[in-house]
Structure formats: C-alpha cells, structure tokens
Amino acid sequence: MTTMAEHLSRGHGEEDPDLLRDQFKQLLRYRLLIVLGVVAGLTGGAWVGLAGGDRYVATSEVTVRSATVDPFGSGTTAQEKQVSIGSERQSALSNAVATLAAKDLGAPDRAEELQSGLQVTNPPNTLVLHFDYTANGPGTAAQRANAFAKAYLESRQKRTQSLIDNMVEGYLKQLKPLEKQRDELAKKIAVEGRSQSSTLSAQSSVLGQMSQLNNRVTQLKALDTTPGFVVRTATPPTSPSGPGLLLLLGLGSAVGIGIGLLAAWVRLVFDPTARSEADVVRALRAPVLGTLPHTRRGKSDANDLLARGRAAEEYRSVAFRLAYDRRFADRRRLLVTAPRGSISTAAAASVNLAASFAEMGYEVLLVEADLRSPGLAARLRRADGIRPGCVSRISARKDGGWPMGERIPMEAAESGTFGFISGVRVRNVARALTSVPATQLIATADAPNAVVVVVAPAALAYADVIALADRVDGVLVVCDPRKVRRDELARVHDLVTGAGATVLGALLHSEGTTEVRFARGTRAKQPTRAAPRKNDGTATPGAHGGGRDTPKAKDDKSVPATTPAADDSPTITLALSRRADRPDPDFPVRSAGPRPTRS
Prior knowledge:
Blueprint: H1 4-12, H2 16-28, H3 31-51, E1 56-64, H4 76-80, H5 85-92, H6 95-104, H7 111-115, E2 118-121, E3 128-135, H8 138-192, H9 197-221, E4 228-232, H10 245-269, H11 277-284, E5 288-292, H12 310-323, H13 326-329, E6 333-337, H14 344-359, E7 363-368, E8 408-411, E9 417-421, H15 429-433, H16 436-442, E10 450-455, H17 464-472, E11 474-479, H18 486-498, E12 502-509, H19 514-525, E13 540-541, E14 547-548, H20 570-575
Parallel strand pairs: 5-12, 6-10, 6-11, 7-9, 7-10, 11-12
Antiparallel strand pairs: 1-3, 1-4, 2-3, 8-9, 13-14
Helix pairs in contact: 3-10, 6-8, 8-9, 11-18, 12-14
C-alpha cells in the first residue's frame, strides 16, 4: 500500500531537468511580461532602423611613407619602420586635417560637424590607413572620404616640409660664423705673405665644417617629402550600410524575448505565491492529491455543489487516495479547510468528498464546523424519509450551543446519502468546538465503516482548525496556488503538525467561478422563511429545490421551540425540523449503510 509519505518523497526527489522544466513552465505564465519585452525590442529595432534613415559608408585607403633620399635604396625598409602608424592614425583624426578637408569641401565653418562622420582604421601589420566616412547619401560619403584622405596627405607633407625647412635654416645659421672665420683666415694669409702651419690648419678645419654642413643642407633639400599615396579612391556605395530594417527587427525581437524572460524570472523570484504543484509540495510538505479542472456552470446549476464530469472523477480519485492512505484509513476523520480567505471552495470539496465516500460504501457524516458564518445547509438537498444508519441523534446541548439537534440525511444524487450536522452561530466558538458533544460527534468515525468529514474556516484566519486538529487528525488543504503564498502554506503545516494532526495533502483549484457563485448563490437563494408544511404530512420543496420541513410547534412538542438569539437563519430551522427517531409515516425507513458504487 503506497502512503502519502512515499509520494511526498518522490516529489522531493525530482531530477534537475524536472525542476528546470517546472521553472520554465512557471516563466511562461508571465506571458504579459514576455510580450511586453518583445514589443519593446521590436519598437527599439524599428526606431533604430527608421529614425536613423539610410546610412552610406565610403572608404578611401592611403599608404603612409616616410621622407627619404633614395626610395629604392637598401635602407628604405629600415626607414619605413620608423613610421609610427598609431600616431599617424591620430593625426588623421586631428582638427588640422578636418579644417583642410572642410576648406576643400567648401564649408570651412563645419569642420567639427564633418569630423563626426569620419572613422580611421589601420589593418594589422600594415602602413595603410582606411578613411571610412558615413553620410546620408552615397555621393556625399565618397566625396568626404576622398577629401579627408587628401587633407591628411597635405597635412603630413606640410609637417614634413616644415621640419626640413627648420633644419636647413638651423644649418645655415651655423654656416654664417664659419664663413666669417674663413674670410678672416684668408685675409691673414694674404697679409703675411706666406702661410703659417697653424693658420693653415685652422683654415682647413673651418672649411671641413662648412663642407659638412653644406652636405647636410644638400641632403635635406634632396629629400623626397611625399607623405604617401592614395591606393584606393572612395566611390559612391551602391547600397546603404548597416543591418537593415528586417535584421534590426529580428535582433530587436530576440533581445526583447531575452528582456521579457529576464523580467519574468525576476518576477518569479520575488513572487511569494505558490505558482505550481511543486511549490505547494515543498511549502506544505505534503503531496498534491488532486487538481480540480476549471469548469463553468450555468445559472440552472449554480446552487448545486455536487460536481459532474471531470470534476466528479477528480473528487473520486482524491477519495480513493485518502481511503488507501494508512494515516487516514486508521481513523477515517478528515478536516477540510483553506489557508486564508473564503472557504466556499473548501465547503464544496467537503460535500463532494462526502458524496464520494458514500459512493464507496462508507457511512459518511459531514460536519459544518463554521460557527461564524454558517450557510452550507442552504446549499444541500435533504433526503426526506431516510434515517441515518448509525447514530441518528447526537447529544443535545441544554445551553443551545453547537452541536445541537440531529443528524440530517442529505441527498448526493446517484452517490447515495450522507449525514449532515449544520453549523450555527455561537458566542464562544472555541468552547463549542472543544466541547464534549463536539468530541463525541467527531468520534462517531470510530464506528465500523464510518467516515467523518469536517469543514472548518480558514486555518490562518481563526484558531478553529487548531481546536479541531487533534480530534480530526487528518487535514486536507484546499487552495488556489496562484492565490496562496508559500509562507502561508508553510505556516499551515506548522500549525497543523503543532496541534498534533497530519496534513494529508492538498487539493488544488484554479481561478474559477465556483467560489464566486457559491457566495452569490448563498445570498441570492437563501430564503427568508421556511416553506409551509402540507396537511398530508409531506414536505413542500423549498427555494433550494429540495424538500425541507418546517418545525411544527403544536404537533411536535419534543423539539425545542426556541433557538439561540445569535442565529435566526433557516439553517437552524433545518437542523431542528425533524427528529430522526420519528420518521415520516409516508416514507419507509432506510439505512444509510454501504451502497454499491456507480458503474
């Protein structure tokens, strides 16, 4: 026999791919964020593609060379290595080059504006500079690229020529004192008539220095100052550059999907709600016994709590799993509650589980332990003329508290019947739930083939679940994973286990109309007074579609004629309407024992 603990251990032992698959499914639940990310990416791509317009890029290439006397000499390679290509690239991007290009283009005042479209690059291990210019038109781009390449060569040649001129001027300045000294030595030799050795030696030294300087000047003037050559002239491009509108839209959609998934992941990380069954299992530390399908009901069956179709089969599956769980099968006591908020769905689940247990052959007692706002009796159909098979009456309380009255047989369509104890409003709820009659009522599950299903208010709203937990032992939590927080489920587990009970599992339901219709149906359909009784002793169908008897103060003196002042609802009237030991003479008495299952 497989226990719930084994199922729980299997849930905790999931492989990493299963966890990743579960997280990915949770990310897909935030479809709005993903769609917004895709829209943002497409908008950005469209804006880049349309707002920027068509951009054209033209390229001009220039080979840089240094000044040399003999470009074909053996030392040319060494001289070319002296060129700092990085410095030349920065010089090509300088304001001086931009000013020359602007003058050549006829716009001397737009030097900085023209410079913004220029990009100069250098291929590795080369002395080539690429002048790439981006403009709105192909002709404009080619014209400006050629203008900047030409301006760069002019600027470099001017710098080289200026350097040569400065050096020549410096050498010429050094020649002037030497020429003066040469003339003085020549006059001295002419006056003396014959040359002295010292004078001749001085004259020879001066002439040597002058010859050396003249050679240097001659070499500088003979230098080839060509700065470089244009090896590629820019031509108007035939098509615009850039990725294009379609490619930008594709890139934008890809980036948008990434942004959307990132936003969904951040939302998932900081989302406190239990978005999946795995989150519920981890927080509640109990297995998920079933998930109710999202069904829509018509107005005709809005008040009918009994499920049909897939929902009914899901309830049967949950009932069978509970019946084969040792923790439940030993005592057969089940407490159905919700973590927080309304218990309408939990009440509907308790009714359907009671019907499923009755269909399995158990003698079922449904106890409404909601003593603050009871209303379940108004939603059920009474089975007239049928007496519960086990104890038909509970211990009545003299103070008029809960539980009071009798066990009422309720119809469960084809599933059979089950007993029902209606809730009433009391002043001290905790005292009523922990009273001796309440304990004896729940203890009826100890009888052979008996099951007690108790529906209680939300576990985190009131302490009613804690008061009932040690008496019922097994708790079923009914929740919507999208509405309940993980810390709330963990707190429910701590409260239940701390009270000495066990969380048998969870029953999940999606955002549906069951809870809303239940609340609306209760307000709209609850009658203000019971229907009058016919003279022949049979019950007249009330506003809920089922036969309901009204108390006869004159005919039935054994039933108390007064009810607690705190509750004047027809639920109490239904609970006190007829004693089970006085059946209607028009209907035979049937036992609510085991019934055959439905084929």
